[in-house]
Specification:
By secondary structure, this protein is of the alpha+beta class. It contains 5 helices and 16 strands. It has 2 domains: 60 residues, N-terminal domain of TfIIb; 166 residues, Naphthalene 1,2-dioxygenase Alpha Subunit, Chain A, domain 1. Its EC number is 1.14.13.128. GO terms for molecular function: oxidoreductase activity.
């Protein structure tokens, strides 16, 4: 039996940072959005972005600009935002791929981001192709900052990036910094000694509604922004209907709710990591 959780606000999420939009979209004019089921107003003053409950009151939420986005916390963050040194690395292009609404839990979106097994079936002729369906064994571990890392990931892909001209074994490293934020470091066709960076920052509107903010930091001088964005939007467009048809929409955290395979080591670790942190927003538990 599945027990659906109420969308109560977990302390760990109240005190976390979330992307709400690109920094350049925050102006002196008030705009509204939602975060963790709460209506939020946001605007810019001389010293930076401002966020408040909507309709606005004297109360203020914490807000800041970082990595090209505006981040908001509904509580009191206990630690600084994660580091992303590649953001300031010379030669990398910052590509904002846009924001995409998806009718599912944001945790489902992060889990899908970590899943290599669906590449040949959902992203056929791009990120995967039969009979190259094997997910080779990889390593999953926590670092000293309690970030979740999946390393030594290798998967053959027909067209791993817009800059790829042929199929290749692609090396992946996944990093989950926050329950709703993850980064993929993957082989760079244009710079073999470096890794391209693809970041997924999920804005949980409610327990079953989310907005995905996608960013890339690439070495690619052969394609313009429109071509690079179109490639990434094609990938996300293929994921969207799959995500919206997964049932239940909230991520199951019960031990017997869903049976993972060996290839799902990152998913298993991610669910355990969420449970240990006390995350219940956007989840269901098995009774």
């Amino acid at each position: 039996m599945i027990n659906q959780q109420e969308d109560s606000l977990d302390n760990v999420l109240r005190d976390d940072w979330f992307v709400v939009c690109t920094a350049q979209r925050v102006t002196a004019f008030v705009t509204t959005t939602k975060l963790l089921g709460r209506p939020v107003a946001i605007w810019r003053e001389e010293d930076g972005p401002v966020a408040a409950p909507y309709p606005s009151s004297k109360e203020r939420y914490r807000a800041m600009d970082r990595y090209g986005y505006t981040w908001v916390s509904l509580g009191e963050p206990k630690a600084p935002l994660f580091l992303l040194p590649e953001f300031d690395q010379p030669g990398r292009r910052l590509i904002d791929c846009g924001a995409f609404g998806v009718r599912t839990s944001g945790l489902r979106m992060i889990e899908n981001f970590l899943d290599m097994g669906h590449f040949p079936y959902v992203h056929t002729e791009i990120l995967g192709k039969e009979p190259h369906t094997e997910v080779k064994e990889y390593r999953v571990a926590l670092d000293d900052n309690d970030e979740l890392w999946a390393t030594d990931c290798v998967f053959w892909q027909p067209k791993a990036a817009a800059a790829a001209s042929s199929g290749m074994d692609v090396h992946y490293t996944y990093r989950v910094m926050q329950p709703f934020s993850a980064i993929l470091y993957k082989s760079s066709p244009a710079r073999p000694d470096e890794r391209d960076v693809i970041a997924l920052f999920v804005q949980p509107l409610s327990g079953v509604e989310s907005r995905a903010h996608l960013m890339m930091l690439l070495y690619d001088e052969a394609h313009n922004d429109t071509e690079l964005i179109a490639f990434q939007q094609t990938i996300f467009g293929q994921d969207k209907p799959i995500l919206e048809n997964q049932l239940p929409a909230r991520l199951p955290l019960g031990a017997r709710a869903e049976t993972p395979a060996r290839a799902d080591a990152a998913s298993i670790a991610y669910r355990r990591w969420l449970q240990r942190r006390g995350v219940t927003f956007g989840t269901v538990t098995s009774a």
